[in-house]
Structure formats: C-alpha cells, structure tokens
Specification:
CATH superfamily: Aldolase class I
Largest sheet: 9 strands, mixed
CATH topology: TIM Barrel
Number of helices: 16
Oligomer: single chain
Number of domains: 1
Strand content: 5-15%
Strand order of the largest sheet: 7-6-5-4-3-2-1-8-9
Number of strands: 9
Length: about 375
C-alpha cells in the first residue's frame, strides 16, 4: 500500500455506479458526462462488466446504479441485471426511457431489477423536447405508465435550472397525474456540460426561493402520497456538501471504457491517473491506487480546511468543483464562504440575478460539440 493509503485507511465501498455507455439519444445541455467523452476508448464487453459486478460485490458494494449515457442502448443490460440480482445488489436503472418497451421491462422485472428512475426535462412538450434536443415528451409519458403497470414505484427526476425552474408547480402536477411516489427536483450542479452552459442555466435567487416555496406548498397538499426532494444548487449554499460522503469513502464509478473514479467527474482533474479495470483489480484500485488515495483523509488539506472544525463533516467540499472554479483541486471548495476563492461563486450568483446574457452559445451535448471542446485550447470560463 502506498503512503497515502497507509495514512488514510479506506472503508469498503458501498455504492457502485456502472456507467455502461456514454452513448445517448438525448442531447441535454446539463449532462454530467465529460464534455470530451467522444475521445474515450471502447466500451467494456459484457464479460468485463460481469467481472466488475462480481469484484465490486466482493469488496462490499450493495447498491448498484446502471447509468450512462443511456444504459438501455446496451443490448446486454438484461444480462447484467440478472447477474447483479443473483449477486445480491439492490439495483437501480437511471434512464431517459428511450429504448424501454413492454418486452424489455418484462425481462428486466423477471431479472430482478429493483428500481427505475425516469427523467423528464420539463412538464411541457415544447421545453422538454428543446432541452433534450429530441422529441421524447410523449414517449416519456408512455414509459411512465409502463413503469407503473409493471409494479415499479414511479420515481421521477427533473433537473431544474434557469430555463424550467419557474415550471415547478406544473412539473409536480404532471408527476402527480402520472402517479409518482417519489420526485427529485434536482437543481443543476455545475460540472460537465452544465458548467459549459452555466450562464444559461444558473437560476436567480428569486427563482430559487419561489420554486422552493411552491414545492413546500405542494408537499403540504399531497402529504405522504408523494415524497418530494428539492436539491438546492451548491452555488446558493454557504457551506460545501460532503461530496460523495468523502473522496474514496463509499462510492466508486466505473466508466464505459473501464476507468474507475471516486466520483463521476474526477476524470478531468489534472495530475491524477485513474486505472482501468482492464489493467488492475477493483480491490487494488480502491485501496491502493494513487488516484483514489490522493484526497482521502485530511493530509492533503490546505488552509482554511486544515484547521476548520467542519472538515470532518464536509471534507473540504468537492475536489472537482474546486478545480473548475480555482484551477487547483486541493483548494477549499469555493462554495464555502470561508474559502479565499468564494468570490468566484459570489460573482457567478450575481450574474444570475440579471437576464442571461452570454457570448457563449447554449451547447447541446453531442459528438460534434464534444470533439470541439476536446480540441479547445482555451480553458472554460470561471
């Protein structure tokens, strides 16, 4: 074990995110996939994914999310679900609904899939289809009914941002009409494509407060019939979140090409090399690889995190956000009001109080834009 690993003994991982593919029929402007995803290598084969599932379960992972891209684009999804069920995972399919039909959902149910989370972009056909750059609103409505018909709880996810946050009430009414038991109103967190499009997406404080008030009133109206989660964007918090419950603490992400990450955004951090399951075992990667040990524990921390009493709760915040906003992943997350770089967040929030005016066009997630961003020499604005 390397020095960092010796000093910062890791717990067993509990949660595996299997990003089966970066391919996706949607082109969402806030997609969390890497902006340069088009340059990455070939996807893991079925046998390689089966080995990953077995190794992760042996390490202690109990919760498994099948994600992407769109995981339904993998023809072997049913095979992977059956194996995951046999291994004892609690499984969750995170999907746009594109590619799901009666035959496939029946096979997934028979294979032991526990949970399906369906995404919408908005409660209106026009904005849903604009934000995803596809005609999928009517399809999503059909898929929602299909999920209910097969006995799954209706779990609806809508990513909120400046373009749709004023529609929260109609979004919740749509969820109620679809029989949703759980609704996640997940305000955009600014990584990946959302960071590129931040000036188009970051809501104003007034929008955020109004949406939260509408959500609270709706909660009172529906009571326990619908669980509603409203996730505030980091930029409007005073202290950072404990990202993934701490770097390399409980969560690991396996990317489509086999690269293993402590969070799904860590691939873009400079100076770190993350190994692939094609090169090493998950056990070695989790416990001993330099990438996973780099920000474990407290030894890496600089001031003000090093002596802050909150460090045992928030672990200095998000390393990826620190890098995106300050250029150094070892800095305190600038969301924290104690960070010497907090002004970067304050300035972004101040711009959001005005009508969105930006020279950078709204960029949809697609291969052409991904290749262009991969080749760009200028850094993204902070």
């Amino acid at each position: 074990m390397n020095a960092a690993g010796s000093a910062n003994k890791a717990n067993n991982p509990l949660w595996l995110l299997a990003e089966l593919t970066y391919r996706c029929p949607l082109h969402c402007v806030y997609c969390s996939n890497p902006v340069d995803y088009a340059r990455y290598g070939s996807e893991l084969s079925t046998e390689e994914w089966l080995r990953v599932l077995r190794e992760a379960r042996a390490l202690g992972c109990a919760q498994l999310g099948f994600s992407g891209g769109e995981p339904l684009l993998r023809d072997d999804l049913e095979v992977l679900v059956r194996e995951a069920h046999a291994l004892g995972y609690y499984t969750n399919l995170i999907t746009s609904g594109v590619g799901l039909n009666e035959k496939r959902i029946a096979a997934l149910k028979e294979g032991g899939l526990d949970h399906i989370q369906l995404s919408f972009q908005d409660s209106t056909r026009e904005l849903n289809d604009f934000l995803s750059h596809t005609r999928t609103f009517d399809l999503k409505q059909r898929i929602a009914r299909l999920i209910k018909a097969h006995g799954y709880p209706m779990v609806l996810n809508v990513v909120l941002h400046r373009q749709n946050i004023d529609h929260v009430e109609t979004i919740l009414e749509m969820a109620q009409a679809l029989g949703a038991e759980y609704v996640e109103l997940a305000n955009t967190q600014y990584y990946g494509w959302a960071f590129v499009n931040r000036d188009h997406l970051l809501p104003s404080r007034e929008q955020l407060e109004r949406a939260e008030a509408v959500t609270n009133r709706f909660r009172e109206k529906v009571g326990n019939d619908m669980r509603i989660y409203f996730v505030v964007p980091d930029y409007y918090a005073h202290r950072p979140k404990a990202c993934m419950n701490g770097w390399g603490s409980v969560f690991l992400c396996v990317c489509p090409d086999g690269v293993v990450l402590p969070c799904h955004e860590a691939r873009g951090l400079p100076g770190l090399s993350f190994p692939s399951v094609r090169e090493a075992s998950l056990q070695w990667i989790w416990y001993d690889s330099p990438g996973f040990n780099r920000y474990r524990g407290e030894g890496w921390m600089k001031e003000p995190c090093r002596t802050c009493p909150e460090r045992v709760k928030d672990f200095g915040g998000c390393r990826c956000q620190a890098y995106l906003l300050t250029g150094d992943p070892a800095n305190a997350d600038p969301v924290c009001e104690l960070s010497p770089h907090h002004h970067v967040v304050v300035e972004a929030v101040a711009r959001a109080q005005r009508p969105a005016v930006t020279a950078r066009p709204l960029l949809f997630r697609d291969d052409r834009n991904s290749r262009a961003l991969s080749e760009a020499t200028a850094p993204l604005p902070r």
